[in-house]
Specification:
The structure is a homodimer of 336-residue chains.
Chain A (H helix, E strand, L loop, with lengths): L1 E5 L7 H14 L4 E6 L1 H11 L4 H4 L2 E5 L10 H7 L4 H10 L5 E4 L3 H12 L9 E6 L6 E4 L9 H18 L6 E5 L10 H12 L3 E6 L1 H4 L6 E3 L2 H26 L3 H21 L7 E4 L5 E3 L6 H16 L2 H11 L3
Helix pairs in contact in A: 1-2, 1-12, 4-6, 5-6, 7-8, 7-13
Chain lengths: 336, 336
């Protein structure tokens, strides 16, 4: 299992990527990570951070790439102009058979654009999309699309359902993932025009479609897959992140008001970190690109080493479980 | 100031409405609340709950209405068939000049439908909508539309911006409310087709338009008004509610694991309730219907007495500050 890791993608610099790679190869004996980026710099940092970890260092190599696509670059322009960018070179490695998957914490639009340009779409897929795991009070739920396709037709949402369902079945070991359609009400007939049309496709499909789900239901964990267009999915994800940040700020402000509460805070700190671990995107292993003819995982820009390690694990699991073969088979079988 | 209160609307029964009314009239000397519902039952409960509060009881009356629209009723059917429903009778009181505004914690679709049927739209308004206050780390932000219009055109979103901006200016005392357009990225050019088209209208308008805002920005409190279609707004609201509930459940689960954390919890309990008060929709006074030719406030179905009292206060404030006159004037001035 060879994973190409965009070493220059994250906001926190290549150290995080290297630390993540070191952690990943320590966990798994059959794993090889290829760090993609400026070779001189990466080799130096790798030698330093990997000191005393000779076993791990044997499972990591560096592949040179001279350019970096930043968060400020337009995805379309960047993919056209920065041919030597880490993310482009990463997907080249997959294309040439030198790697099995790509992991990047960089510009997600550019990562998707590079994946499509280098690897193309899976046969039958109209629009690849980005799936993401959301924590819930039960097991995580996979929401798709979280931002690749802001204007969708019903056929696209239908394919998101098929792709995410295949992925959930294999990664989350759900024999028949329950698929919900994100809407403004659970009742039949609720939704905008797009949702109503998609409902008809899903209800006639052999997917385990449980009907409309409301925003409130996403975090209940009663479904395995939630389908929506990339505009709504992006807002759902970012509203959640924003609320979590704001709530933490407000709570801290209240706690800092009294000594009593400050003491209480010290006592619950461990419970708080257990809680944070449950809701932390870093624990969820990044967002799979689904529908591309290969395997790619996008991580949050602020990914730490744990997030990178988990993303490498999800990428490996997607390859090992042949998620793309399942998507092709299911799309063929279920074509709406 | 006479507010008609749908006494049968909330999930928690008429007691909550009565308690809310008692609290509201105790706060304000110029306020009269008209409880709308089955008069025998309401008079009995009012006498009981208002025992010893003769001053308050003088400011509350009961107006009979024999039917109730439930949460399960289809708004369109209910408004057509249940002519004697509390919410219909409430808007009749406004229409006939016997009340200045309606407050209801009932079926929000039916409340909007009843308002439009009984009072009509303000001149120039294509689509009335529902605005709602979201807590942020700074002052609350007004988001519109939260669910009345699931399929919108750019002109509708533009009018939401004008209406919410007028309302925010008068209720939140913001001389020039900062208006953001909810999108999947803050950069110019981000958004689905509807958002891109709306952006052009807003940027040319005299509104204090600050550009696209991401989901993450909603809770930062850097804008006063956030505009989106009712489908996206409904999902934003309910995703937030769902996350807040789930996070509280997960946190409690973690805290219950150790005695140390349980003790800590006792010490921060007061801080937690201060925090809850900040994020509690009950504190925000319900959701104004904007664009109808009158004043109506929708409350959350689970509203307690505090929420009802605050909604009555917002309704009074809208009437007192002549929000509708401001909307008409601003729409005329800014017609896109």
């Amino acid at each position: 299992m060879r994973i190409a890791l965009d070493a220059m993608g994250g906001d926190l610099g290549p150290e995080m990527a290297i630390q993540g790679a070191l952690a990943a190869v320590s966990d798994k004996s059959d794993l090889h990570v290829i760090l993609v980026g400026p070779s001189e710099r990466l080799n130096g940092q790798l030698a330093e951070l990997g000191r005393g970890k000779n076993g791990a260092l044997e499972c990591i190599s560096v592949h040179h790439a001279s350019e970096v696509i930043t968060m400020h670059d337009s995805p379309v322009d960047a993919v056209r102009k920065k041919k030597e960018a880490t993310i482009m070179v990463g997907f080249d490695l997959v294309k040439n058979g030198a790697a099995d998957a790509v992991v990047s914490a960089g510009n997600s639009g550019a990562t998707m654009a590079a994946a499509i340009k280098k690897l193309g779409r899976l046969p039958g897929v109209a629009r690849p999309g980005i799936a993401s795991f959301f924590p819930t009070v039960k097991q995580p739920v996979m929401l798709m699309d979280i931002g690749a396709n802001v204007d969708c037709r019903a056929q696209h949402l239908y394919q998101f359902a098929v792709m995410a369902s295949s992925c959930s079945r294999l990664l989350q070991k759900q024999p028949r993932p329950r698929v919900g359609l994100l809407s403004n009400g659970a009742e039949v007939g609720k939704g905008n025009a797009l949702v109503k049309e998609t409902y008809e496709l899903l209800v006639q499909s052999p997917l385990n479609f449980v009907g409309n789900v409301e925003g409130r239901d996403v975090y209940r964990g009663d479904v395995d897959v939630v389908v929506c267009d990339g505009f709504v999915g992006n807002i759902s994800l970012k509203i959640s992140e924003g609320l979590a940040d704001a709530a933490m700020q407000m709570l801290k402000r209240e706690i800092m008001k009294t000594w009593r509460a400050k003491l209480g805070y010290l006592l619950i700190r461990q419970a708080l970190s257990g809680f944070k671990k449950q809701v932390d995107y870093a624990e969820y292993g990044g967002a799979p690109l689904l529908g591309i003819n290969g395997t790619g995982i996008i991580c949050h820009g602020a990914s730490n080493a744990v997030a990178i390690r988990n993303a490498i694990e999800v990428a490996s699991s997607m390859v090992r479980n042949r998620v793309n073969e399942a998507i092709i088979a299911t799309l063929g079988e279920y074509s709406a």
